[in-house]
Design goal:
363 residues, alpha/beta, TIM Barrel, eight-stranded parallel beta sheet, globular
Amino acid sequence: MARFFYYSYILIFLSMLQVMGLEQPFIWGIWYNSYQKPYITFKEAYDRPLFLQQLDHFQKIGINRIYFLVKFPTGHVFYPSKIAPQHPELDWDPVAFLATECQNRGIEFYPYVNVFPEGEYNEITQEHDVIGPYLQKFPHHAMVSQSGKIYGWASPALEEVVSYELSILEELATQYPMSGIQLDRIRYPDTTTDYHPIAIAQYEALYGKKLDPNDYSWSLFRQELLTNFLFKARARLKKINPQLKLSAAVFPRPYAAIINELQAWPRWCRAGLLDEVVPMSYYKTADLFRIYVQHEQEVTPANVPLLLGIGAFFIQDIHEMEQQIQFALSHAVQGIVFFNGFHLLDPEKSNLIQRYARSNTNR
């Protein structure tokens, strides 16, 4: 009997080692933007067959994860929401369709959400400083610059804003099958915001002194507002589905992101608030790409998967793109995400991805 238990423990131990040693699939991902025109019309009769055709293509070249935009920078969403304003041209639910199609094809599906922009920029009309429907309804929720300018961004200092943005994430997580959710634009547009009166009052109450814009504690305070939002988002999403991964698309130069966009993503990683981080390392040349990838690796803990965003949309030289892929593969990152998927419809780029994805999926 003793020998039986001895061998049982040995088998359990070996099984644990086997599980721990299983290789995780290398992520070949794309950001798939629903505002992309002339490809996307928001009409089911046209977009459904188009999605099917493009999914066939992405699957063929080895894409195994899709980040699909579900909340536009104007605040419109691309699904029938009970919370957020639906895009006015939309006549169906592309999120439900793509989530199911990806699940059937073995492709991981991650909706991605522009968190605080509520009118920042209209990608279709290319208008800046748009005030979206949410801020039209609640203009006092907008970020304010030091000079009093109103931004098309909602202020994370307001409880109502935080509750609203969190409720969109919860709605997505409960309504659709998915592997994770990615947060985009979880930052400030620049350091001149947010001088919302409530933000200032919170700062002065916390630090016990009048606001001095040159005091680093003011930057730190605003950074922590984003961190607190992320903490709440993680807690709520994990309560809905403990297996759901929380991802963030972040600025690629970590120290500059902390200073210029108040996006302290290295601290988020160290605090265990993210299940992965995806720096948008969009550079035309491999030299710059290499430099900033090394910076990103220095600040990302080993237990947080680091996926590298490559700017397929503006790399003209296919050899430059290949060098960036080769560098990523040789530096022990966990995946590559291309911005954006529509640029991988180009035969030269799709052939390049297919060649590397076929031989570098399980690592």
